[in-house]
Amino acid sequence: MQSFENNVLETIRSYNMLHEGKSRRVTVALSGGADSVSLLAVLLRLGFDVDCVHVNHCLRGSESDRDEEFCKDLCRSLGVDIRVERVEVRRYCEANRLSIEEGARKLRYEILEGLSPSLIATAHNLDDCLETTLFNLTRGCGLSGITGIPPVRGRIIRPLIRTSREDIERYLDELGLGFVTDSTNLVDDCSRNIIRLKVLPELKRLNPSLLKTYRCELSGFESARDYISAEAKKLFKKNKNGFWELGSACGDAVLCEAIRLILKDEGITPSSYRIGVVKELVRSDGRVNIAGGVYVRGCSGRISFERDEAELYIPSRLLGDVCFGGRRVEFTEISQFDISCYNNTEIKFLMDADLLKGPTVLRSYKGSERIRLAKKGFSQEIKKLLSVYPAGSRKGALVISDSEGAVFVEGFGVCERLMCTRETKTAIRVEIAPPCGFGD
Which family does it belong to (predicted)? Predict the structure, then answer.
């Protein structure tokens, strides 16, 4: 028992889960399984101030209700506060086209991260970490994938991440604490269960000390990952035109990690194939469909991403700050407007609020639509206006429209119909922050 608790305490200290200045208040994500029950018990015995949250996914009927009641009874017996959240996972997954496993995980973390600003402890253990490493390897991954589940992510800490499931069950037996078993974990109907139920037992036949070996190797993997990640972040930056600029004086591992970080920043799940495609485009010009409606373009050692025009579409009342394509668009209402206070350049980015018609939308340009810019005297095709930008940036350029069409184009200003005049009483100023990137 003592060695188990010392191991958990060592993990907490090694990964700086609770350092000076951090609260000792911890919320445990309690499912009722062996892992989370042992986590609750060990944190209490180590002197932490603990409460719990239980998420009922409503997926297993009476078994889900049994788990909820078990958690309530356990917390009552230990004198620990518990909060129960019920979520309709199936309905959420159908609406968002997600697998049950993915949807349940997403909802669970949304609930956990929406809690008060205390630390949140989840009960992932060393077996889970190894399963994740193997799962990542089957799909292709970088060093971050090989290291499995991170011990710390934001406010989420994982004190059992270097403790085996066997040690966890032995600890509960010594304490005389029971737990519940999720029957879905015993069926090999998904990738993780296949790894847990079929692959790992065979690997343990080859090496009975598999988990001990894996734990020893992890520290080396983590050191290599941290070094390469730090070097990769020095390698690239995103310029004002939306191109990612990559330095060339680096090894292959650093370049691949830089590309992985760029893909994540662009909202694209990294994979060996995608990293390989981008790596080739860094060295030779071209354009490749990398994910659904997303294309990556290489040009003179720089890369950019292009998306189908339906990618960006955000209804907005043109008030306050709005996030658009990874940038901040700020709308400021100016009452008692006086045109004499503004020069011609400033007026281009002001629109008469009273002349807007119907609902307004922030979006990408559409096909061959046109706009009659203020003081131009003729209409122009928006696509041609934006041709001054690199191809990868055009779909990300901001267009504002009302019920009559485009009223504003990023970089070019407002349409003639909404141009401010001496009669304007209320104006709206449009300001766009530059794209954000690791190199900023």
Answer: Belongs to the tRNA(Ile)-lysidine synthase family.
